[in-house]
Amino acid sequence: MQAAIETHALTKRYGPRPVVRDLTFAVEPGEVYALIGPNGAGKTTVIRLVSGLAFPSSGTVLMLGHDPHETPTIRRRLGAVVEAPAAFYPYLTGRSNLLLHARLAGGVATSRVREVLDQVELGHAADRKVGVYSLGMRQRLGVAAALLTRPEVLILDEPASGMDPLSLHLVHRVLRDAASSGTAVLLSTHHLDEVVAYCSHVGILEEGVLIDEVDLRDRGARMRAMVDDVQNARLTLAAQPWVREVFVRGRDVVFTLDESAAIDRVGRCLAAAGVALRELGDDSFDLRSYYRERVEAQRARRTSVEGRPGAVAAVSVADAPTGADA
Ligand SMILES: Nc1ncnc2c1ncn2[C@@H]1O[C@H](COP(=O)(O)OP(=O)(O)OP(=O)(O)O)[C@@H](O)[C@H]1O
Ligand SMILES: [Mg+2]
């Protein structure tokens, strides 16, 4: 499958200072990928680069297989909420603003305006002027505008900042629904609970470096095995017909066990491959703790690298701590 969004060795410098470093990642159709990271980590910059609003200093961005600068028309297949709050006329109603957006985009049925307003639960306020909307309402209108054309790619920078808890859930659920009909969604956020509940992937950025990516799908059916040799365990489990979606997360191998398979098969097949199983349990993933650990480990590592005379300041993904040495 062709990735909807793909970057390779993407780097952005402002002056001599790189704020995004050597970033390689991809978002497939149907995925909701959340970029998380401390303030100033580079999330908005990545989002601007990927949506074609900023030029890379080096490296490449492909959206639906095209460079958004070389093929600007590709942006017609993109829905974006990047420069928040989205540009709306304050003296027009929410509905009129969206009708205007729909007309500018072209090919959008009038009925779609009502549909997206209902999706973000603004139907009741559709005929009020945007000037009297609260911040959260304006943001929801921004999400509605991005959905109008049923875009193949949705890119949103903190779509839910400043929203009340119910609106937070609503917006993330709307994005996941868009993904379930094939849209690729990339967003940045600080709301980790929503990430775990609604996103399929999360990437952790720290000082412009993507220090980790986690696949969050199918969490309910997942198992987690702590082992002495994660790569051997990963290959061994991946070769079993009763195991699905095997990946390494830190010192653990995470996998989905077919319902028909007895749990003791895991220990037996790992033992046969010479892997020592230290712990086997349900995969109840605590993103908050995991995030804190990874960011702190990366900061410690960066400080020690930067402290060495003549050392290169950037810590690349390859240098980032793995489960074995974290
Ligand atoms: N136009 C610019 N000129 C110079 N530096 C910039 C520019 N835009 C961003 N930066 C710097 O790049 C770094 C990353 O900023 P960015 O806005 O991407 O971070 P962020 O992860 O989105 O942070 P936040 O969580 O606060 O939104 C920051 O140090 C910021 O000061
Ligand atoms: Mg930002």
Give a short summary of the structure.
Helix 2 packs across helix 3 and helix 3 packs across helix 4 (135-147). With 326 residues, the protein is of the alpha/beta class. It has helices at 43-50, 94-105, 110-119, 135-147, 165-180, 192-198, 230-238, 264-272, 287-307; strands spanning 5-14, 17-27, 32-36, 58-63, 78-81, 153-157, 184-188, 201-206, 209-215, 222-227, 243-249, 252-257, 277-282.
What does it look like?
The chain is an alpha/beta fold. It folds into 2 domains: 5-214, P-loop containing nucleotide triphosphate hydrolases (Rossmann fold), CATH 3.40.50.300; 218-282, Alpha-Beta Plaits. 32% of the residues lie in helices and 26% in strands. It has 9 helices and 13 strands. Helix 5 (165-180) links the parallel strand 6 and strand 7 (184-188). The two termini are 33 Å apart. Residues 14, 19, 37, 39-45 line the site of adenosine-5'-triphosphate.
**Biggest sheet descriptor:** 6 strands, mixed
Q: Give the fraction of residues assigned to helices.
A: 25-40%
At the fourth CATH level, what is the homologous superfamily of the largest domain?
P-loop containing nucleotide triphosphate hydrolases
Low-confidence runs of at least 5 consecutive residues: 310-326
Bound molecules: adenosine-5'-triphosphate, magnesium ion
- Give me the strand/helix succession: EEEHEEHHHEHEHEEEHEEHEH
What is the SS-derived class? Answer: alpha/beta
Radius of gyration: 22 Å
Percent in strands? 25-35%
How many helical elements?
9
What is the third-level CATH name, the topology of the largest domain? Rossmann fold
